[in-house]
Amino acid sequence: MSSNFILLYITTVFIASILPGPSMLLALTHGMKFGAKRTIASAMGNVTVSLVQASISVAGLGTILIASETAFQIIKLAGAAYLIYMGIGILFSPKMSVVPENNSQPQNEVSLRKMYLQAVIVTAGNPKAIVFFTAIFPQFINPEAAYLPQLCMLLSIVALVAFTCFMIYAIGGQKIVSLFANARVGKYINRIIGGTFVGAGIGLAVSKN
Questions:
Q1: For residue 150, is pLDDT > 70?
Q2: What angle do the packed helices 128-136 and 40-58 form, to 10 degrees?
């Protein structure tokens, strides 16, 4: 695979990953609440599921999922339900205590395991990622070259890009947290984030694709 082809693949995956969606919203939220450093745990959850989704596509199971409308809808609706559940929880939770950039001790004690699992569930609830990988992988695999090295490289790039995009949002959340803390909108932060999660869940549930 040529360097130009690799660059095109990286660009394609990056654009698809960096677009705002449930996973990136979670990254932003965790960055704001817990700081970018602790959000690495969430990023690893996102990477784990992204690799699983990509592997499913490579194994050919993504085609089966696409063909099975029922399975696709079940995964999508389960993901939507979890987003709405998280949103309602945030809406009715106590006022968010945000973490300043210079504070290494998080004010909201949430285990890294829970942050990891939240990212796993949110990422897994988006079956469109499997459809995406199923569509692009054949375009970047050379049938005349050794298959395993190509597969390892493509999956490694997926992991690196997924982690990078997640942390971009997490760092962004940490950077703007001081604005929320000092502005009058700060007291409405739970409503804003919770409402956004609920809206994202409803949007995912009613989407036709």
A1: yes
A2: 50
